[in-house]
Specification:
Blueprint: H1 3-21, H2 32-53, H3 66-79, H4 84-93
Length: 94
């Protein structure tokens, strides 16, 4: 699949996700499995890119709220059995 095709599909997916997030009346409901699939895919894509090319801002500055970020970060840490203290240590070591 070409790079431009991937970008087009990502933009289309983003439009669907925006509609779901805005609770549009015609937007489908996502179940937990679908959300887990999307989130884990995004995390893997981001992590592998950082491993290959170094850190970069994962999202635009005002794309989400601090509450959105902290809710997701907390859930990700719990999912892999990492405490916030351990995250702090990991950050200090890198």
């Amino acid at each position: 699949m070409s790079s431009s095709n991937v970008l087009d599909r990502a933009a289309e997916l983003r439009a669907h996700i925006d509609a779901i997030a805005a609770s549009a009346p015609d937007a489908p409901e996502l179940d937990e499995a679908a959300i887990q699939t999307l989130l884990s895919a995004a995390v893997l894509i981001y992590s592998r890119r950082v491993d290959r090319q170094g850190n970069f801002a994962g999202i635009p500055r005002d794309a989400i709220t601090a509450t959105d970020a902290l809710t997701t970060a907390s859930t990700l840490l719990k999912s892999v059995n990492v405490a916030p203290f351990e995250l702090g240590l990991w950050e200090a070591w890198s």
